[in-house]
Amino acid sequence: MPVFHHNGRMTRWSLALLVLLPACAAAQQAEPPNGLLLVAKPGLLDPNFRQTVVLVTQTPDSQTVGVILNRPTQLKLSQLLPENAPAGNYRDAVYFGGPVMRQVIVALFRSGKPPQAPAFHVLKGLYLSMHPGNIEPLLAGTDRRYRLYSGFSGWAPRQLEGELARDGWFLLPATEELVFRKDTRGMWKELVDKALGKRTQGAAPIHVKKDRPASHGFVTRGGRSS
Question: By C-alpha distance, which of 67, 50, 4, 38 is closest to 160?
């Protein structure tokens, strides 16, 4: 799959992901959206994810992919795109999406219908994609709601479950209003406070369902599929 990137050096693992992700995205695109927020707990010290809010979705083969919502960068879009790619219509910051394939441009965008090119269906009407077939029309247009990221975040099957078991993340529902928030300063603290507030009010704990693969909703609350 072609992708927008500005660095010719790619690891073997990155190349493998480029082969696998289009098929995963195409398969997940037809599924109901299952996106949610990972909110780093204060004790999570990994510099890639410390004090982050990550919008994630799970693929049919139980991989987890997403982008960090609260790390805008100083990068210019022109630094990341091929010379002939249109960039003039994009006015937002380029955000750091995560440590996987940082040279790749990823778009989070609204679409009234499933896009033609592979994309992950994250929330109702919201998709995540690194495919030029989705990114080029966004850059060329002026009336679409979207945000661009450099790189993305990814977890292999069961990897995120391990991090949740080690108490590294809060899980919260995601909304379109939040994921496109203009000023993300304070987002992490706001959501940590919200998560702690829910816990102190006696809400049922959120946990990963263990008894079957969770391709349609990979977390549950109080034993019910999300």
Answer: 38
Would you say 37 and 190 are in contact if contact means Cβ atoms under 8 Å apart? Answer: no
State the CB neighbour count (10 A cutoff) for residue 113: 6
Tally of structural domains, the chain: 1
Q: For the range 195-200, what are the long-range contacts, defined as Cβ-Cβ under 8 Å and sequence gap of 24 or more?
A: 195/39, 195/170
- Report strand pairing: 64-68 vs 95-96: unpaired
Residue 79 inside a domain? The answer is: yes
What contacts 6, CB < 8 A, 6 or more positions away? 79, 80, 81, 103
- Cβ–Cβ < 8 Å for 225, 208: no
Sign of CA dihedral 181, 183, 185, 189: negative
Structural domain containing residue 71: 12-225
State the Cα–Cα distance between residues 46 and 36, nearest whole angstrom. 20
pLDDT at 103: 86
Predicted TM-score of the model (pTM): 0.77
pLDDT digits (tens, 9 = 90+) for 101-156: 988 999 999 998 889 899 999 999 999 999 989 998 998 887 789 999 999 999 98
pLDDT in tens, 5-16: 433 333 443 444
Q: What integer pLDDT is reported at residue 140 of this predicted model? A: 86
Determine the Cα–Cα distance for residues 220 and 226; give it in Å rounded to an integer. Answer: 5
- For the chain, how are helix, strand and coil distributed in percent, rounded to 5? 25, 25, 50
The CATH number given to whatever domain includes residue 84 is 3.40.1740.10
Burial class (CB in 10 A: 0-12, 13-18, 19+), 204: exposed
